[in-house]
Amino acid sequence: MYTVTLIPGDGIGPEIISVVVEIFEHMNAPISWDLVEAGEKVIEKYGTPLPDYVIDSIKKNKIALKGPITTPIGKGFRSVNVTLREKLNLYANLRPIKSLEGLITKYDNVDLVVVRENTEGLYKGIEYKIDDTACTVRVITKNASEKIAYFAFKYAKENKRKKVTAVHKANILKITDGLFLEATRKVAKEYSEIEYEEKIIDNMSMQLVLNPEKYDVIVAPNLYGDILSDLAAGLIGGLGLAPAANIGEDAAIFEAVHGSAPDIANKGIANPIAILNSSIMLLNYLKLNELAEKLQNAISATIKDIDSLTPDLGGKGNIESIKNKIISFLD
């Protein structure tokens, strides 16, 4: 039996997380949930959206499933997601992007993975203002760059991927992105069996839209990886399908890529597939591969039934119809 920290989150978070819990129970997954609350709902009581007991739970269990947590824009508290990644040194953000059969999108042949450095860059949040000028500090280190490069190449080798593409803007940011490229080039030499290439971020964005089938594993600094993974999610149908894992040496947090969507909370139309796909990554991380495959097959079958899908996927269904259809395919 595995104990997993469970963070429902804000907005639609509790709704979609409850779907995972019910489906896992139906599958008899050997998982016990350690429920902890974080986000806007705990600020009044604890004075922070991220009380210490959340960090303590994840450190103890070493694995968590997290619903989306609201991040204020331009004001308010610092992103809970960024804080978790820094405090737990979850240096690798892994975002698989794969076309789903039966879903009508502009592409049906996308199968790539974005590996994003998760702890530095502009997300350090080092900002200051002098009179009418605002500045931010972008931090890129050799150590973090090499770690994420090793993670990307190791992932490629273990998952029989053939190519790693490093994304940068070293033509302009010659020191910071130059250092990132030095690190990826060094690591690439140790994996001669894997093709290595480099793309400037603006060209990479265009190439993903024009020819996404040409890409396999993409490794990038924090901001580029964040933007590209959302862009890539759009190629397969949107953020409602895209899973993510934040992985470190001592812990891992699995989450959906999308936000808390407070405008549709408690309306029954939230799409749980992204968090379910994240839970599949969690199962594979725990080496519960048979259960992961079983759930993946049930989701794939459900995707082909348009009537069961939520409005964001072009369907007329709701969160209950998706959940019930998945469970029917599990039986």
TrEMBL record:
It comes from the Bacteria. It holds the Pfam family Iso_dh. One of its GO terms (biological process) is tricarboxylic acid cycle. Residues 3-326 form the Isopropylmalate dehydrogenase-like domain. Its EC number is 1.1.1.41. It is an enzyme of class 1 (oxidoreductase). SUPFAM superfamilies: Isocitrate/Isopropylmalate dehydrogenase-like. One of its GO terms (molecular function) is magnesium ion binding. Keywords: Oxidoreductase. InterPro entries: IsoCit/isopropylmalate_DH_CS, IsoPropMal-DH-like_dom. PANTHER family: DECARBOXYLATING DEHYDROGENASES-ISOCITRATE, ISOPROPYLMALATE, TARTRATE, ISOCITRATE DEHYDROGENASE [NAD] SUBUNIT ALPHA, MITOCHONDRIAL. Belongs to the isocitrate and isopropylmalate dehydrogenases family. This is Isocitrate dehydrogenase. It comes from Petrotoga sibirica DSM 13575. The lineage of its organism: Bacteria, Thermotogati, Thermotogota, Thermotogae, Petrotogales.
